[in-house]
């Protein structure tokens, strides 16, 4: 069991990293450049995709936390894991709610400038990428 948990501590951050890079830094900006995609359609797609991503991220965070309890890793691994989880919690609990309210307003027909919360979310995604890389490096078997 400990061997499986040890491998999960490296594999799961790499899987999570790939998902964040593919969705946040590839799919999200590119969808608005596709022919025929309106702001409303792009927001609708984005909401579905990010809701799914965030749900999977929460599961991956739980898997990593459970694996860490099993193997009792070094302090560096705990620190990188804590940073990663805190970033996710801030994104979901602090930044996403205003973004959701804003997208509700845009979908209702209001024209609004880009919100500061969007920039915070992007900044936190960059920080999460760094944290996931740090976690994988320190947890490598």
UniProtKB/TrEMBL annotation:
Keywords: Membrane, Transmembrane, Transmembrane helix
Transmembrane listed as a keyword: yes
Species of provenance: Nocardia jinanensis
Record's protein name: DUF4149 domain-containing protein
Ranges that cross the membrane: 6-27, 48-71, 77-99, 119-140
